[in-house]
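Changelog excerpt

This revision adds worked examples to the README so contributors can see how folded entries look when concatenated. The first example is reproduced verbatim below.
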Amino acid sequence: MSQWKQIQQLEIVLLEHVDYLYDDNFPMDIRQGLASWIESQDWDTAANDESLATVLFTNLLSQLERVRSQEQNFLQRHNMKIIQQQLQVKYTTHPAVMARVISTCLREERRILSSACMQEQGPLEKSLQNSVAFERQKSMDNRVGVIRGSVQLMDQIVKYIEDVQDDFDFRYKRLQSLESSDGNSEMMKQEVTRLQDMLNRLDFKRKEILSKMDVVVKEIDDLMTSQLNPELQDWKRRQQIAAIGGPLLTGLDQLQSWFTLTAQSLFQIKRQLDKLGELVVKVTYESDPIPLQKPQMEDRVKCLIYHLIKSSFVVEKQPCMPTHPQKPLIIKTGVQFTTKVRLLVKLPEVDYQLKVKTTFDKDLPPGVSRQFFIPTNNTKVMDIEDYSNGCLSVEFRHLQLKEKKYINGTKGSEGLLSVTEELHSLSFEACFTLQGLTIDLETCSLPLVVISNVSQLPGGWASVMWYNLLTNEPRNLAFFGNPPRASWSQLSEVLSWQFSTLASRGLNKEQLTMLGEKLLGQHVSCSDYQVSWSKFSKENNPGKPFSFWMWLDSILELIKKHLLPVWNENYIMGFVSKEMERTLLKDRQPGTFLLRFSESHLGGITFTWVEHSDNGDVKFNSVEPYTKNRLSALPFADIIRDYKVISDGFVPENPLKFLYPDIPKDEAFGRLYNSHFSPSLVSFPSCPSSKVNTSSAPCQSPEPPMTPGEFDMLNEQLCFDIDSMSSPYSE
């Protein structure tokens, strides 16, 4: 079943989350009309590959044209034409942006499907949903709107003051001309009275506008302190969680709207103060409130503008290598990476080009053994993006890192921390002048892990997950000097995200329980049990030469590269101990099998089936785990289809009949089989492999079951040693 069909079967509450994903940047009409085609394209790679993105964008327009030409409904044809034109305007010069939008939507769909399979949401996801509650956004929209309305009304008051003052100026000059001709006339006395009334009104209005300004400026100050800045910090926290596989990061456009509207209000108040200053030059009087209050008011407004713009300089896209789009914040030396910064305030004017400079390893903490620098051009000019509502941003696409060498030609020495525990940072700086106000901008990426070999990638990703799970500090580079512990409820949620990121589902409660038992033993029943960083990533599993995380990461890679179709169908039980496996199978009909990941191999999957002897004994048979080497030669579904056993000279037969609990094998895997010829996989369990078997007969070497020609063909097809798989054993 396609991902889009699964989405359409969700409950209304979850469908509302799906609805939130789609807007003018990627209309749902396209998702609906091109569902199968969209899901078959590699949008993740295209998001960081301009040439591939261009090809996919061109193909998408062609697909839209095809669907439009087949549409019978005139209104639908018209709407699709409009959508097609809008996409061309938005993305013709920026196809990678479109690829990123679609990649993000598909990923979030997978996360929503995954959450639908979970019995309950984890604590992190619950807290994030609360933090972006609709009511809070509504309150913010309301408050910003009220401020904008108040500022507009102040514009009218300033205009009224200007009109009254012009009238006063005209009458005052006329009075001066009357004084020269008839200084004691009744008309002149009336005019003096009228002018005094006007001056009183003018004084009242000047005091009124300054009072209203004071109220609005205080309101803006409070808005920035109590709501706008917390919303920004909340977005940054959600960016951290999204970076490690959590819910889709949304809300930046909304933040930009709030920041820009607030800035526009401040700019408008500044213009009103400038206007009042002009009016004072023409007309002033004793105890005029404007000269007394205007300087202080201007300083407050300028200060708010400065801090608002300074805080609006954010890292929109954290550093990421295009080769690993789902593992940001890990950089390999000599490999290009991309990052993007954005200014959330739309500026009315900039006196010159706004240049952004990047600096790596600025202000490193003591104890860091390695330092890096950017050998390529590290300065770019911010530009206005038409497809992002006109904000200023700049994307660095071709940055690289190089390790610093010291005077003797050597690189940094080994420190107390491992390479993947050393944290680094990428800083961004800019400076510009706006309406006479000099503003220094500075922001930085989340902490980065720098590796020199891809074998360090799993350890680096463990560090990225641990940091962003447990702290919202933007730049605690000494974090792993004394890393905090994580509760199992937090950690299990993040581990499930690792699966939902690459597939259409995460881990269910039973699978997470098994993982918890493997990591914590009997403590898994306590969701608040604290897991140390060392136990998660550094200490080897009991009796094994690898850690818990290295084992789990190897399974993720195996699923991603070789098992995704089977995993997405929910056919792999995966995380189940051998003891539980036997408990589940013992009462099932002969030939029932289940699929689980190897506990003793990195990146291995095995299957076990049950047999019943005539005397009632239950036998369990397992095969040597299939790793990436074997699965690169044959798809796993074909292996299950063609697996055969020769025992005691009988004709080879496939012992796998029913996928646990009772699904006929071909019914489960039939549509995943390859149609082309696949040689049978032959195993020789002449003695049972499971300890449950009561037979004590020693294992005998089987007679050759195939002709030399058959053996050669099989060996060539499988590309691995046939002897290594010819004797099943209990792992």
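The second example, added in the same revision:
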Amino acid sequence: MPLHKTKFNASWLEKLDFDNTPVKRWLKQGGQQSTFVCTLCKTGDLCCGNKGWQSIECHMKNKKHSDNLKLLKENNIFTIRTESNLIHSEQSSSSNVSMTTPAAPSTKNISFSDQVTRAETLWAMNAARHGYSYLSCDGSSDLFKKMFPDSNIAQQIKMERVKLSYVISHGLGPFFHRGLIQDIKQCERFVLCFDEQKNHQNSKQLDLLLKYWSVQKQCVVTRYYKSVLLGHAPAHTIRDSILDSFRTDGIDIKRLLMIGRDNPNVNKTIEKLLDEELKKVGGELLKIGPCHIHVVHNAFKAGTTKSCWHIHTFCIDIWSWFRHSPARKEDFANIADELDETIQKTILYFVCTRWVLLGKVVDRILIHWEILKEYFLVYLPGNNQAQIKENKKYNSIKLFLSSNISRTRFLFISYLCRVVFDKFLTIFQKTGPMIHLLYKELSDLYRVVLLSFVTIEHVGNKQGGELLSVDYKLAEKQLNDKQIKIGEETRKSLTLLSKDEKETFFQDVRNIFHSIALYLKSNLPLHNSFLRDLKILGVSYRSDPQGCDAIVRIGRYIPGLLSVNEIDLLSDEWLLYSIETIDDSWVVKRKYNDVDGKEHIEYHEIDFYWDKILSIVRHNGCSKYPTLSKLIKNILIISHGNADVERGFSINGNILTEDRTLLSEKSINGLRATYDAKSFSGNGSVHKVPINIEMLRAVQKSAASYKDELLKNKTIVAAQEQVNKQREKTEIEKKKLLEQENELMSKYKKLQTEQKTAQLLLEEGNQRIGNSLRKRDFTDIQAAYALNKIGTEKMKIIDEDMSQIMKDISMIQQKRAHADREQSNKKRKLAAEQVLLEENATKFVK
């Protein structure tokens, strides 16, 4: 722990208190280097020289401080702090807006117009949070006036569809995006997570998320970065979109640590292409494979499809049978009433890319199993023959429900998901840092699968990579039918099966386990020593004797993060950490009893624990673990799966509905950025998002920015129309020139024919002269001479005409080439003007 006379550390001002309020709102250094002051409680100098940051935490637990903080949060008047070291100017980037009590002596109320803007801002964020369409908010201003007739602010609110649209797309969206960029530029490294999905606009929406250690939050965060709408989405197009986005925002690609992705080949190629770009600037990507959540889903798929039970097909058939038919749902409910059963929950839809969730769908069907049998096997044949006649879907459902073995299969699938797979997915679909748990949980998953059908003597105490050596195909090493793990409910249902059905069932179960084990063995990274070493970041491994060696190996493995000297310091810092005194509150979040009186313990996320450790300082105020801090903060951001991106697909579905297919890319980005800010800054609630002067100014300037963009687009459209008209004119001229050229070419070919005729005349004249000279008969000389003269004159005229035609053709071709160059130049000029307009618009927004 820190020694006596710990100095006040300026980095403490970046921390959050227990209610996630930035401590810099009320904390400042006291008159001495080892003291602090709480401006909220109006304290004098309080000592932090003995316990350092823990002294401040003790003050935060004080009831008076908690009550003052509560008053601060509940106050609805926004004020500007007037501390002596703060210049209050709209233009100043250091303006600090916070909520304080009205009686605070050093505050002044913001203007009425800003209070109106604040109200409009809150409503805009709320609309983005809940996915309200812009049209649905058209009457909100009049509604607020009726609801709050005594409020001057409500009387002035104006938030119709157009204003709501540009406030989000040109005000809040860019504001929150700039905040993200400022935060990301302060971190050492970051992870890019991406995936694409077809949206309701029939476009491929590429979503980009950034995972990094936030200086503002002092923990690992995953933030929405941006969306790009694509048509064709080959690997090089996605790479270019990513690189262009980084360049636009001034993000150095050398700080990219790794790519979080799933396993399609196109994503592998993207990772390879980005790694090549990184190597060009002296960097390199960390590679630990694809999303392991997908690997687990695909392992389950490999097993269930091997059995040929087609349970997923049956689930989809049942869901689709009732989906669009209220009459069928009513008949089904009536059957349930007759059987004195209750329809507790509706049938779920099975998503073919989330195979383990088949267990949840199967559970719903098992709940209604008897009702389904009565409905499909008794009610429909007796009351709706026309409906089921030659109905393939009904025949398939009937085949499943008529078989005794079907329910046994369903029970086994339910057991497999619930007992074997659900634990892993529950852990790794969280947003927090989980990479230190990945290797052990994957190892435990594979071990559980093996122990489900292989004897424990054969598996032994093997863990991790050792499990890959287990030969599970040996029949003598496998559990018999009475021992194999299928679940108690499944085993009870076996009494209804015949001997042959039992044999078939157990053979299918073994095939399922074999296929799952084979897929996991082929795709799990159990030989990856880097992932294995990361377990030492867990609290329970602090005193592990292998910790020093492991942390050094981890430091070496991360490309370009630590220098040789820094790696040399790792083992010493780890030794100091291993004997550090740890406060239980750094590990345990809370203890509570459930309704049965059983005690439960809720633990902090691992980044909370490490933030406490890495905040410890020496007596001189310097960090005690500077090298560990650099390494561990960039280890905890490593992606353990692509669940964060896929959660974003649900947000997209809420924002971009079938009724909102005309939203622009800028609007989509604005809506997603605002939604993300609600989670990042407001802990999931819009009213908790801190609103400062910069945000209000961004909202107020959004109208001008929007109009500027409209003008820019209008200018571009006008210029494009002019270019189109000029192109049409040029095309007409080119067409005429081409017709002239073709006409001249026809004449040229005709002259070539005449040239041949003249040549024949010359040849005939020369032949006659030759014959006359041989025979010494000069009577034919005169006729031959006349032929030569006619042929020569004709050749001369033809040659002159052909030369002129070629000159004319050459001139026409030059005119056509000139027209093409002019057209290209105008296109380039238009493109340059468009880029300039966009740059000016960007500067205006900033």
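Reviewer comment on example two: The chain is about 60% helix and 10% strand. The radius of gyration is 39 Å.
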